[in-house]
């Protein structure tokens, strides 16, 4: 071993990045292992613990690495550098612990949103995409995720705010006006700026109307 060489010791669930000065390739190494750092190598990222996403939480990673057909093996270029999707983001769900490949960046770790039966989450599409259930979304479109349930975030979406059901008490009525053109839960087309209906009842929850509440409609409650 040369005098300039050093020995790097990694414990379990620790990682580091090693840069080869000759070809400028950065390598990810994970513990447990002992690795000799040669004189033509350096550590652009020192020994770091794995990043942990608790159960019931999620994280967003910028510049995620490219995976092979099995969804696990990283894809490398001809020099051995792991490829990344520059400028893109990836959502990773808990519970998991993982290292970051070179160029990857952990943006946020946050608990997932759980909605009660009388709650809905207003979600806005950031780009055109097709959801997992086959629904086509357009950039800027707002829609409602209704409870009870846990909202699973996507990089194509932005969660805006949680709305709660409106209860109509005896002697009151509600008039709804669509803020956007959409199809409600009953399959009926609602056009923008059109009055949907007026309701008079002893007690009603607007969640029964599917998307007809929150940012999809405006409403006013009056008495008679």
Automatic annotation (TrEMBL):
Keywords: Cytoplasm, Ribonucleoprotein
Record's subcellular location: Cytoplasm
Annotated ranges, domain Major vault protein repeat: 51-107, 114-154
GO cellular component, one term: nucleus
Matches recorded under InterPro entries: MVP, MVP_rep_dom, MVP_rep_sf, Vault_2, Vault_2_sf, Vault_N
Pfam family, one: Vault
Protein's name according to its UniProt entry: Major vault protein
Listed PROSITE patterns: MVP
Listed Gene3D superfamilies: 2.30.30.560, 2.30.30.570, Major Vault Protein repeat
Positions annotated as MVP repeat: 56-116, 117-169
Keyword presence, Cytoplasm: yes
Domain of life: Eukaryota
The keyword Cytoplasm is annotated on this UniProt entry: yes
């Amino acid at each position: 071993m040369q005098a300039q060489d050093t020995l790097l010791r990694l414990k379990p669930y620790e990682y580091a990045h090693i840069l080869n000065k000759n070809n400028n390739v950065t390598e990810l190494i994970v513990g447990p292992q002992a690795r000799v750092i040669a004189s033509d190598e350096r550590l652009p990222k020192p020994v770091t613990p794995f990043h942990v996403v608790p159960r019931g939480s999620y994280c967003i990673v910028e510049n995620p690495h490219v995976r092979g057909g099995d969804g696990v093996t990283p894809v490398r270029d001809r020099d051995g550098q792991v490829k990344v999707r520059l400028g893109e983001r990836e959502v990773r769900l808990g519970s998991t612990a993982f290292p970051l490949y070179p160029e990857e960046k952990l943006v946020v770790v946050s608990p997932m949103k759980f909605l009660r039966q009388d709650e809905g989450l207003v979600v806005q599409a950031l780009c055109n995409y097709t959801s997992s259930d086959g629904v086509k979304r357009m950039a800027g479109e707002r829609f409602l995720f209704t409870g009870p349930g846990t909202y699973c975030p996507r990089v194509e979406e932005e969660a805006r705010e949680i709305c709660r059901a409106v209860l109509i008490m005896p002697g009151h009525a509600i008039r709804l006006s669509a803020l956007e053109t959409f199809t409600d839960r009953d399959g009926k087309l609602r056009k923008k700026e059109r009055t949907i209906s007026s309701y008079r009842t002893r007690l009603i929850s607007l969640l029964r109307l599917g998307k007809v509440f929150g940012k999809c409609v405006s409403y006013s409650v009056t008495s008679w």
